[in-house]
């Protein structure tokens, strides 16, 4: 169980949710990368949920609300970010539910937001390949 954070050389952060992490782990990762001095220069942020293994109760609406609150706060210091969400495995019936809640809760953020089935699609939307 882990949240892996990768800083690319193209001003993008890729946050990968692996296995059945809980909401506190995701919140901690967001707080860590948003507090990094490099955050002020990023232009792309990808939340990659494709390797997340859904377990009921590990992440709930309160966690999504906290994630959105942090993003609203940090968007004030860097208004030029495009954020992409790579959705959970297609076999999970409600895989877009987290994204839908997050999107509604961050509607007032000045960032563009999109959802994608693969990391490659998200990277293409940001105008980059994975390097």
Notable characteristics:
131 residues, alpha/beta, Transcription Regulator spoIIAA
Please characterize this protein's 3D structure.
The relative contact order is 0.19. The two termini are 24 Å apart. Helix 1 packs parallel to helix 2 and helix 2 packs across helix 3 (97-105). The protein has one domain: Transcription Regulator spoIIAA, CATH 3.30.750. A five-stranded mixed β-sheet has the order 1-2-3-4-5, sandwiched between helices. Strand 3, helix 2 and strand 4 form a beta-alpha-beta unit. It contains four helices and five strands; from the N terminus they run ββαβαβαβα. 32% of the residues lie in helices and 21% in strands.
Mean pLDDT: 89
How many helix segments?
4
Assembly classification: single chain
CATH class: Alpha Beta
What class would the helix/strand composition place it in?
alpha/beta
Q: How many individual domains?
A: 1
Would you identify the CATH architecture? Answer: 2-Layer Sandwich
Inertia-based shape: globular
* Terminal residue distance: 24 Å
Rg from alpha-carbon coordinates: 13 Å
Uncertain runs with pLDDT below 50, 5 residues or more? none
What is the succession of H and E elements? EEHEHEHEH
Strand content: 15-25%
What's the CATH superfamily, by name?
A: STAS domain
- Largest sheet strand order: 1-2-3-4-5
CATH-defined topology? Transcription Regulator spoIIAA
């Amino acid at each position: 169980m882990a949240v892996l954070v990768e800083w690319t050389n193209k001003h993008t952060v890729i946050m990968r949710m692996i296995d059945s992490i809980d909401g506190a782990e995701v919140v901690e990762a967001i707080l860590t990368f948003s507090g990094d001095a490099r955050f002020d220069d990023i232009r792309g942020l990808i939340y990659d949920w494709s390797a997340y293994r859904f377990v009921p109760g590990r992440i709930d609406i309160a966690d999504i609300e906290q994630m959105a609150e942090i993003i609203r706060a940090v968007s004030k210091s860097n208004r030029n970010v495009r954020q992409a969400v790579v959705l959970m495995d297609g076999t999970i019936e409600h895989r877009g539910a987290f994204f839908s809640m997050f999107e509604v809760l961050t509607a007032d953020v000045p960032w563009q937001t999109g959802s994608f089935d693969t990391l490659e699609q998200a990277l293409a939307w940001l105008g980059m390949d994975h390097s």
